[in-house]
C-alpha cells in the first residue's frame, strides 16, 4: 500500500512541471552564472554540459524510478525495494543534504524577495555599477533584515506543504515556467544588443582548455547535481507521486532540457551584461543581484520588467524550496511511524530551517561551507550511493526491474541506462572526487 503522506499529482504535465519547478530555480539563475564566472566561463560551461549528459539522465531517471517503484520517501524507499539492506544511511544523507541546502537557499530566496520589494519601490533607478555593488553589500550586511526576508519564503513554503496544495503548485508552475522563459528570452535579446556585449559572449562560449583544473571539474559536477536537484532525494520524493502510467524516461528528458535551457539563458543574459557594464565576472554570489538591476535600466518598461522578473524569480525559487522541504517533511512523517502527521513535520522542519538561516546569516562562512559541502561532496556521494544501490545491490530482477516500472523505456535504452548506472556514473564520480583531492598529480 502506498502510505505516502501526500496525494499524487493530478496529471502527467503537473508532475513534469513540479519536477521542473524543483530543478529550475536559484541554481540556474543565481548560482550558475557566478560559479561559471569564477571558473573561467566557457571552460566551465563545456564540463558542465558533459556532466549533464553523463550524470543528469541516469540519475534523474534513477531517482524517479526509486520513488515511483517504492512509493515512499527517502526514509523508506531503500528498504521498500530491498528488505534488511544496508542502504538506510542514504536516506539520512539525503535528509541532511536537504537541511543544509535549505539553510542557505532560503537566505538567497530572501535576497530575491528583498530585491522584489526594492524593485517595486524603484530603488535601483539611476544607480551605476558601483552604486549597485555598494547597495548589495549594504543590504546583505544588514543581518536582521536578511533574517526577516529569509522568513518570508519559509512561511510561504510551509503554508503550501501544510495544506498539501499540490494542485496549487501544479497550476502555478504551468503558468510560471513559460512566462519565465519568455521573459528571459526578451532580456537576452536586449542584452545582446548592448555595446560591448560581445566580450561576454566570448567569455561564456569560448573554451580555453588550459582553464580546466580539478577544481573547475569538481564545481561543474557539483553544479550539475545541484541544478538538477539530484543526489538528495527530491526527485525520489516526487517520483513517489508520479502517476503509474507516466513515462519516467520522457519526464527526465523534459526536466533536464528545461533546466539546461534556463541555465544557458541565464549565462547569455548575465555575461554580456557584465562586460558591457564593466562588472567583474568573478564577483561571487552577489553577481546577478548587482548585474540584473543594471540590465533592467536598459529595457523598455524598466520598472515593469524588473518587478515582473523578480516575481518570477521568487516563484521559481519557491518551487525549489517546496521540493527541498518536502524531502524533510515526508522523511519525518514516515520515520515517526504515525506519531507525527504532516503538519507536525512541517512545523519541526521549519523550526530547524529557521535556526539554520540564522546560523548562515550570523556566521557568513557557514553559508559557503553549506553550499560547497552539499554540492561538491554530499550530493555526489548521495548519487554514487543511489547508482550503486540500483545498479549493483538490488537483486537483478529488481535492479533491471526498476526500469520495467517505466512505460516509456525501450529495450536498448534499458541496456544503455544500466551500463551508465553501473559503470560510468560511479567511476566518474569517484574520479572527480579523487582528482579534486590532488590524487592524480
Ligand atoms: N535545483 C534547484 C535549483 O537549481 C535547487 C535544489 C537542489 C532543489 C536540490 C532541490 C534539491 O535551484
Write up what this structure looks like:
The protein is mainly alpha-helical and 441 residues long. It has one domain: Amino acid/polyamine transporter I. The protein has 18 helices and no strands. Helix 2 runs antiparallel to helix 10, helix 8 packs antiparallel against helix 14 and helix 10 crosses helix 16. It starts with 11 loop residues before the first helix and ends in a 5-residue tail after the last helix. The N terminus is likely disordered. Bound molecules: phenylalanine. Phenylalanine binds next to helix 1, helix 2, helix 10 and helix 14.
Topology:
Elements: H1 12-23, H2 26-38, H3 42-70, H4 77-81, H5 88-120, H6 129-141, H7 143-162, H8 166-192, H9 198-205, H10 214-227, H11 234-239, H12 248-277, H13 287-298, H14 302-335, H15 342-362, H16 364-393, H17 396-404, H18 411-436
Keywords for this entry:
441 residues; mainly alpha; Amino acid/polyamine transporter I; globular; disordered N terminus; binds phenylalanine
- Rg of Cα set: 21 Å
- Stretches where pLDDT is under 50 for at least 5 consecutive residues are 1-6
Q: What characterizes the major β-sheet?
A: none
Shape-level CATH architecture: Up-down Bundle
Q: Which small molecules are bound?
A: phenylalanine
Helix-strand category = mainly alpha
What coarse outline follows from CA principal-axis ratios?
Answer: globular
The total number of structural domains is: 1
Helix and strand pattern: HHHHHHHHHHHHHHHHHH
Mean pLDDT: 91
Counted by DSSP, the helix tally is: 18
* Beta-strand share of residues: under 5%
Helix content: over 70%
CATH fold category name: Amino acid/polyamine transporter I
Topology, number of strands: 0
N/C terminus separation: 52 Å
CATH class: Mainly Alpha
Amino acid at each position: 500500500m502506498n502510505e505516502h503522506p501526500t496525494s499524487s499529482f493530478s496529471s502527467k504535465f503537473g508532475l513534469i512541471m513540479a519536477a521542473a519547478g524543483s530543478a529550475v530555480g536559484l541554481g540556474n539563475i543565481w548560482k550558475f552564472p557566478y560559479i561559471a564566472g569564477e571558473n573561467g566561463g566557457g571552460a566551465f560551461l563545456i564540463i558542465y554540459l558533459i556532466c549533464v549528459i553523463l550524470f543528469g539522465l541516469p540519475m534523474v531517471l534513477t531517482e524517479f524510478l526509486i520513488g515511483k517503484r517504492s512509493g515512499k520517501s527517502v526514509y523508506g524507499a531503500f528498504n521498500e525495494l530491498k528488505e534488511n539492506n544496508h542502504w538506510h544511511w542514504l536516506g539520512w544523507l539525503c535528509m541532511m543534504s536537504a537541511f543544509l541546502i535549505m539553510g542557505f537557499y532560503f537566505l538567497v530566496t530572501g535576497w530575491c524577495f528583498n530585491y522584489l520589494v526594492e524593485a517595486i519601490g524603484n530603488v535601483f533607478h539611476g544607480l551605476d555599477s558601483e552604486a549597485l555593488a555598494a547597495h548589495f553589500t549594504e543590504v546583505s550586511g544588514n543581518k536582521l533584515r536578511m533574517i526577516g526576508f529569509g522568513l518570508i519564503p519559509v512561511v510561504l513554503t510551509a503554508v503550501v506543504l501544510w495544506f498539501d496544495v499540490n494542485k496549487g503548485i501544479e497550476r502555478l508552475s504551468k503558468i510560471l515556467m513559460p512566462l519565465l522563459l519568455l521573459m528571459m528570452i526578451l532580456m537576452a535579446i536586449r542584452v545582446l544588443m548592448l555595446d560591448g556585449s560581445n566580450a561576454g559572449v566570448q567569455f561564456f562560449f569560448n573554451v580555453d582548455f588550459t582553464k580546466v583544473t580539478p577544481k573547475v571539474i569538481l564545481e561543474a559536477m557539483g553544479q550539475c547535481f545541484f541544478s538538477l536537484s539530484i543526489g538528495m532525494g527530491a526527485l525520489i520524493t516526487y517520483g513517489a507521486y508520479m502517476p503509474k502510467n507516466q513515462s519516467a524516461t520522457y519526464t527526465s528528458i523534459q526536466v533536464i532540457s528545461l533546466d539546461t535551457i534556463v541555465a544557458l539563458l541565464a549565462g547569455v543574459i548575465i555575461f554580456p551584461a557584465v562586460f558591457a557594464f564593466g562588472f567583474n565576472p568573478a564577483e561571487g554570489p552577489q553577481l546577478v543581484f548587482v548585474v540584473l538591476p543594471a540590465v533592467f535600466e536598459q529595457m523598455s518598461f524598466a520598472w515593469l520588467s524588473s518587478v515582473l522578473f523578480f516575481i518570477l524569480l521568487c516563484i521559481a525559487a519557491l518551487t525549489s524550496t517546496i521540493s527541498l522541504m518536502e524531502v524533510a517533511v515526508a522523511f519525518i512523517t514516515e520515520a515517526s511511524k504515525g506519531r507525527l502527521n504532516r503538519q507536525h513535520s512541517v512545523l519541526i522542519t521549519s523550526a530547524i530551517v529557521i535556526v539554520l538561516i540564522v546560523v548562515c546569516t550570523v556566521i557568513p562562512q557557514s553559508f559557503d561551507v553549506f553550499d560547497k559541502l552539499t554540492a561538491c561532496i554530499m550530493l555526489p556521494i548521495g548519487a554514487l550511493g543511489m547508482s550503486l544501490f540500483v545498479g549493483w545491490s538490488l537483486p537483478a530482477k529488481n535492479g533491471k526491474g526498476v526500469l520495467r516500472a517505466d512505460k516509456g523505456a525501450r529495450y536498448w535504452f534499458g541496456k544503455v541506462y544500466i551500463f551508465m548506472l553501473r559503470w560510468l556514473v560511479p567511476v566518474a564520480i569517484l574520479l572527480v572526487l579523487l582528482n579534486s583531492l590532488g590524487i592524480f598529480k
